[in-house]
């Protein structure tokens, strides 16, 4: 109970500090308050709030260290309790993924494993969004009378575009991959399921368009793109599927014995799982809604 109360207090302190800083910045930008008043608010209100947040973080780390946890684990756990950590982590992942994408590299693929991408056709939406963003910035630059607001809108538009490109890059640099023993299915760097190849009963190319987001329905795991899924896999025994979500409280763990996944080269994946190239190349994909 004490731990839960402390966590809620830290969450509240962080949220209040962010709101105070945001309101102060908006009031200063709109000239509703003078710079002197803004500095006074920082000294009297916002710095003490930030101090409370810092003290809470340090106290949490010290408590975990006293309980025998290592320094790195203590810092990771305490920072992970922050309501902003999922957003910060997503930003870091996006920028890191963009860097790897520009260098033509992948992340987290075991040595000797075969990667199976799921990115075909995924560039259309980002390109359209980028074009709309540049048009929006140009139009608003002409319409908005305040220079500070034009700058803010331009920065937010570019930042949202980078976030979208980072999400796209995360999909590309974290492909599914197949080792000698397991098929590892991923989404944006997170492992959704690790399937023992010995548990694969069947694998076929099959087009499904019923789902466009990761989910589990009637024991079937769907890992689609905007184009649905291309491959069906049946298992001899259930495996754990970790459904991704930005907020930890929304993440779910389900048992599944069937998987529908999108890969750019379904025939190659099915061939590897079935060990029968001639049969697979002769298949005709079946369409299911």
Automatic annotation (TrEMBL):
Keywords: Membrane, Transmembrane, Transmembrane helix. The chain crosses the membrane at residues 39-63, 123-142, 148-170. This is Uncharacterized protein.
